[in-house]
């Protein structure tokens, strides 16, 4: 119980620590011990990773300010190598169940899923990625997009919901 308390305090201190190379390295070292799998990454403050044992992060990734990664409660999130994630991105592998109109939504639990972000992907700022989505290698998700379906390799997607705008291989 006390160990859990101090672990939470440490997580909050690390989350709020300044945007310096030293604190980025400390955040990475902390999450290397907590995540299912974790390579080297850089992060700005306010990187929030919930249910860390259900999250994998590859090598050479970069997380900008205020990124939320949440596989809650039984989902999984996998981020490949060389992935860039912009500020204010939400990656959440669960939705609230809402099927029964006779029960309050907050009492119906969650529907968990899986999110996979492959290698060499750029997630621009203010993006939301929902459950059961795979973003294939080399793709770019435009700022403000809401990704609800799989993204093909080397695609640029944008909008709400996100749709393919362009294929990077045909440029």
Automatic annotation (TrEMBL):
This is Acetyltransferase. It comes from the Archaea. CDD domains: LbH_MAT_like (cd04647). SUPFAM superfamilies: Trimeric LpxA-like enzymes. GO terms for molecular function: transferase activity. Keywords: Transferase. Pfam families: Hexapep. Gene3D superfamilies: Hexapeptide repeat proteins (2.160.10.10).
